[in-house]
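Structure tokens please, single chain.
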Amino acid sequence: MELHWYEWDWAAAEREFKRAIALSPKYSDAYCLYSWFLADMGRKDEAIAMGAQAQRIDPLSLIGSFAPGSISVFTRQWDRAIEQRLGE
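Here you go.
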């Protein structure tokens, strides 16, 4: 997260997100944070998929349930954001 938001070392940040997921594949926050990274990189579909994965892993997680809809808003995919909000 530091490499992404503070250091702006995109290649290293992506490696670290992938490593975190590989080391702990059931940790939904890693997927959620990676989804924000992907959105920042303009990789909208991957970001949405990663946010959805976070939600599937831990549907009771606040950050995990927030990710798909917020990423949709951030990437200006309004219809998808509405669907997420309505639970469709």
